Amino acid sequence: MRIKLKIFLGISYLLILLTFLYFFFSAFEISRLNDFSYYKELQVDLENYIGNNLYRNLLLFFIFSIAWVMMFGFGSPILLVSGILFGKWLGTFVSVISISIGTLGLYIIATFFFAELVNNLFKERIKKYINLFRKNEFYYFLIFRLAGGLGFPFPIQNILPVIFNMSKINYFFSSLLGFIPQFFIWNTIGSGLNDYIQKSNDFNLLEFISSKEIYLPLILFLILILISVAIKKKFFDDKIDNQKENNTNG
């Protein structure tokens, strides 16, 4: 009975996901995505809509972000949108909290419905890190988030702790703290993109990149990537090498 219930709920979840994505993308005029004036129209409409009731729209965005992440959505589109809609500071605040809740929800769903599938697909790929996570799950998962998920796509990052059965409280707070630096950069880019669309009449790539609202956060993003590589080497790869050396000497 328990297996049948899991199958039913799992299929229901996938159907809800597909329905959600269909209605989400139906809201956009796909044929006009290469038309810069379309983005200016969207920008004006969104600015007027947000300005009419900020708190209501913050709540709607908060709920949408949670649902998006729980439906296996990627983080960067939400972060850009939050920066466009609410600016870099408020956008960072609302996106960090809502996405942290959404990732926790996805983790719980994956633990209940897809634990065996997650183990089959990814356990072999992260087996060298499992003992580190089990040794201090909060610390190493925080480092994992700060390092950008060690190269795993965002939705996959969110379900990997299923493999080492991470505490939900540790999962939530290590994610929340680990998200802050990269989320701030993405929201800053989104805010800069909104400013560029507002001020420009046509899209020019060189002008876009040379705008300080864009190139400064891009530089920060590149620095974050370099820091992520250094974090991965120091806190994961070097630890693994030391463990192997100790085992060999032992």
Outline the fold blueprint.
Blueprint: H1 2-26, H2 36-52, H3 54-70, H4 75-113, H5 115-135, H6 137-146, H7 154-159, H8 168-199, H9 205-210, H10 212-249
Helix pairs in contact: 3-4, 4-8, 5-6, 6-8, 6-10, 8-10
Walk me through this protein's architecture.
The protein is built from ten helices and no strands. The chain has 250 residues and is mostly helical. It has one domain (2-20, 36-249). It is globular. It starts with a helix and ends with a helix. The relative contact order is 0.10. The model has no long low-confidence stretch (mean pLDDT 80).
Give the terminus-to-terminus CA distance: 48 Å
- Tell me how many strands there are: 0
Residue-averaged pLDDT, rounded? 80
Binned strand content: under 5%
| Secondary-structure content class | mainly alpha
**What pattern of helices and strands is seen along the backbone?**
HHHHHHHHHH
Task: Give the number of helices.
Answer: 10
How many domains? 1
Which consecutive residue ranges, at least 5 long each, have pLDDT under 50? Answer: none
What kind of sheet is the major sheet? none
What does this entry show, briefly?
This protein is an all-alpha fold and 250 residues long. Helices cover 84% and strands 0% of the residues. It has helices spanning 2-26, 36-52, 54-70, 75-113, 115-135, 137-146, 154-159, 168-199, 205-210, 212-249.
